[in-house]
Amino acid sequence: MSSNPPAGVGWAFVLKRAPVWASVSVAVALALAAADASAKPGTFAGSLGIKVPKGAEAGIRAVNRATGTVAAARPVGRSGSFSLSLAPGQYLVVGSVVTKQGKFVQKRIGVSLKSGQKRKRSSLKARKRKRRGARPRAAFVEELGDVTPGRLAVELPNVTGSTGDPDWDALKGGINDYMMNELFEGTKCGTAVIELEHRAEMLKELEFQQSPYVDPSTRLIRNLIIADIQVRGSISRAPGGNAKLVMKIVASATGKTLGSSEVTLRREAWADGVEAVGKKISDDICNLSDVYEVTLDVSGEGRFATHSGTGAIHQTLRALRNDPAEKVWRASGPLQWGAVTFATNIPECSLIDYVIPAVTWSVTITVADRDQLEVTWAPGGNDSTTASVDCHPSGPGDPDPPPIPGQPGVALLNTGPGTFVVPNAGGTQPVSGIVSDGGDGFFNTGQVTVTPAGVE
Fold first, then answer.
1. Mean pLDDT by groups of 10 residues along the chain of 456 residues
2. Which residue of 69, 132, 418, 422 pairs with 25 in a disulfide if CB–CB is 3.0 to 4.6 A?
3. Strand, coil or helix: what is 45?
């Protein structure tokens, strides 16, 4: 951002509309999740240690080292003083100053806070203490698989492309910061905005945390939040000396484009164009839904004096939130026994004309508490299979008796539990059902599996 903005655009206006510290996460709760419920916030306060000239814009933000999200952010005045309230944990604190002429200065410092600890009169200009000994190879703790239901995590890679105009191209970083601010302001549906600018630095610190030089009792456990979606921007030349900006919402797991918006940026009002795109992208993100896949696997057997029957069910539903602001997922779909067989216990008779009803089943998932989901599933009709018994004539010359329908096979009778609890990250619940009398009856075993499945 050392180049001047396009003609007609003043730095004071640019910075007011897109402050460099605006990468604010609306997922502060994610950074707090690892803290004990009884832990008290701490205070980190002091001075930037950087001169803030008249007309300059300055700010400070604290990035949670474990999750990679912004935990707090504040503008800073001419005095350079600041105060942040932070949950106990380890942070990378970043202070930034941009002058009216576009000069950019940034300072960073690592901070650790215990419950209720107050660290005042700090300075980001403080010299870092040198670590002794060689840095070992990383022994990373992989992301822990924690899931916060009803929340989507979004990251913004750097804007790519070129207009061939150095003034426009110099603003790509500013556009990225502006878009991050728009997502913070616009996505009021629980979106977590991931800070990427200092990811490499945080990874180095996490690497050092695994070394013999760090007390294991205070060692920071890596648990970076994995993005569900990315907002990818590209800039290119447009007629009249303008620039074309395209922003796409892309599913991180599949690369599928889930939404997009584009605008022609004009030199005299480029921020208005970015704001319009940001609002459209924010609305589209809030209309996305995270998905839980629910799979029912059941093996069934019917045992009777005259015959037996077997069958299996393997059906999957994709449960979505109808309202992105709610934490309730629902789905319904077809349910039918497969691989159905009947076997006779009477040599003179056979089972024919199988009837395998096609019914529905439904699932509802709600948040039971901070770490668990309540899952309710049920068939929506009579799924019982039947067949007709067809017996040979009793003797020569006797009439052939007609087939008798309605001989039972397999059915989901009494199979459950119909309601159970699994962790937010999903899980498997065994199910079973027996309806019997003297050894005859219906016998089912299986499981219901709940799995987070990204976005839709």
1. 38 31 30 49 88 81 77 83 89 76 69 86 63 32 66 88 89 77 68 78 75 73 84 94 94 91 88 88 88 97 97 97 84 97 96 97 92 95 97 87 96 96 94 94 98 87
2. 69
3. strand
Annotate 177-231 with DSSP letters as a single string: HHHHHHHHHH-TTTPEEEP-TTHHHHHHHHHHHTSTTS-GGGPPPP-PPPPSEEE
Which element (helix H / strand E) includes 274?
helix 270-287
E strands, 252-395, are 257-265, 290-303, 307-319, 328-335, 338-344, 349-355, 359-369, 372-379, 386-391
**For residues 86 and 64, what is the distance between their CA atoms, to the nearest angstrom?**
10
Which residue has tokens 């599913």? 251
Cβ 405 vs Cβ 385: under 8 Å: no
Is 87 in contact with 34 (CB distance < 8 Å)?
Answer: no
Classify residue 170 by its DSSP letter.
Answer: H
pLDDT for the residue 139: 29
Q: How far apart are CA 197 and CA 277, in angstroms?
A: 22
List CB contacts of 240: < 8 A, sequence separation 6 or more: 266
Is residue 192 within 8 Å of 147, Cβ to Cβ?
no
Residue 187: the pLDDT is: 62
Residue carrying structure tokens 């077997």:
310
The HSE-up count of residue 237 (CA atoms within 13 Å, CB side) is 7
Its pTM stands at 0.67
